[in-house]
Amino acid sequence: MMDQILVLLKQWLVGWFPPALQPWVSVVLTVAAILGVFGALFAVATVFERKGLGRIQNRYGPNRVGIPFTNIRLAGFGQPMADGIKALIKEDFVPATADKVIHFLAPLALLAPVTLTFAVLPYGRNMAPIDLDAGLLYFFAVAAGSELAVFMAGWSSRNKYSLLGAMRAIAQMISYEIPLILSSVTVVMTVGSLSLVKIVQSQDFTLLNAQTGQTSLLPNWFVFTPWGLAGFVLFLIAATAESNRAPFDLPEGESEIVAGYFLEYSGFKFAIFFMAEYFEMFAGGAMAATLFLGGYTAPLSWLAWIPTWVWFFAKVMAFIFLLIWVRGTIPRLRMDQLMNFAWKFMLPMTLLNLVVVGLWHFLGTGVARWMVCSALVLGAYAALGRGLAGRKIGRRVYQFAS
Amino acid sequence: MTAPFAILAVLTIAGAVAAMGLRHLVHCALALVVALASLAAVYLQLDAQFVGFAQILVYVGAVAILIVFAILLTRSGEAGTQPIASPSWAAGIGVATVVFAVITGCVLASGFTQRESPAAPDVATRLIGEALMTQFVLPLEVVGLLLTVALIGGVIIAMRERKSEVTAALGEAGSIGKRQSANGNLP
């Protein structure tokens, strides 16, 4: 009941309208729900990020803004409202030499494709806005449109730092798009469909148990296979790089190129860039959860009473938490490290993972396929890691500690 | 002709015309992206999901970036000053009209308008994948091989250039140094 309450609510609301209007009302309701939920999530995530980073850096983070004219402080959760109002009433500054039209269009061209990716995600049981037959392809195709928007922003500002930031961002996004797509191909190979709903259903063990009549203890998520674990980690890294988050925040690089491609944006246009970055994080987390963590499904059958959409957003928020943690912990990469990592580590690992998933499929069920696939993944990981670091395989030597 | 098709047709043609007519090359490239994306939308209108999304992924995501990079790396940022219209336009328009007429004639003569369009299958992407992996696996492999060869070739060219650049730069610096020592001032 709780699981389907949002679906029923929507049906009930749509039922009030005349039949001719019903498809339109249904679409408008879905879009409004997506925009509202992710907009609110954006506001909450900025506070979480600032407070989380504050904790990691041994300070408080925002804790002042509350309800005006009272002493109520909301533990800092009034901050997004204050930030939003500030962004709206700030001067919208456009450089004199900027290409005005493209400078204006760039933030919209960035936000639009990122928001469009939310259209195919299954948020809960029966809660996918559209179940496209080529849903995964749609996700990557639409997300690829944001690269051009980044270029538009960087180029139209007529600022060297902006252009440098845009070039870095595009080089990074193109490099990490390949491992991103290749690591998700493993799931497509296993499921045999590009539809995200089918991908989630094939990991839903209540559905699977009903078919086979057994009850398995481990959830049927792809992350609990050797290729799934490798694919999940590779996907997470590539998704972090795609959304230009630390440690892959070279395109912004405050200490080197001020703010990168959105340097010449102020006021609400800057807020839109900020929002697009967060939306990309949400989309990346949602896709990682859908592909490898069973989407909206519960991990254990006795936890299935918790609504599916709660599970989905819990997984997305876990990803956000991980990203904040990583941002507070790992320093920024150098450009050559970034490229070496993408082409010499990520790409070979994803290609090998494709072979592993093929073996996993043909080796049947049993211990043998676990041993072979795990050995392949771990061996490649060790060899590539050690080889790239210029170390020989053997005992690790700590230069300063020992 | 339906309303969505009309909108997309206008967008495609407007994008293509702007790509030819605008002064700044980067603007032209962005206008071309509009035309290519509208074409993708036309494919989606025809229920060809895979082709439409692949068009966006490849043309908007990759080819447009390639064009833009090529422009930035080869030209200066300023727009050209020479007039856009040139005498060769008349010949170009003539050739284009003839080609268009021939293609239109062929399409109309092919009996394409009488043919019934098949119903859209539910799992079109799966059918495409199966066809690519069974019937057309050899062409697919050949294309893959070709792309790999192109990739390796590109890497080799880039490597050689860097080496020769270094030697050329060294040689130039050496000759400049010699000239400086001979003349006693900067060239």
Structure description:
The complex is a heterodimer of chains A (402) and B (187). With 402 residues, chain A is mostly helical. Chain A is 65% helix and 0% strand. Chain A folds into 2 domains: 1-89, no CATH class; 95-389, no CATH class. Chain A has helices at residues 5-15, 22-56, 79-89, 100-116, 135-156, 160-191, 196-201, 205-212, 226-242, 254-257, 267-292, 308-329, 335-362, 367-389. Chain B has a domain at 136-187. In chain B, helix 1 runs antiparallel to helix 2 and helix 2 runs antiparallel to helix 3. Chain B is mostly helical. The N and C termini of chain B lie far apart (68 Å). The model of chain B is unreliable at 174-187 (pLDDT under 50). The radius of gyration of chain B is 25 Å and the shape is globular. Chains A and B meet through helix 5 and helix 6 of A and helix 2, helix 3 and helix 5 of B.
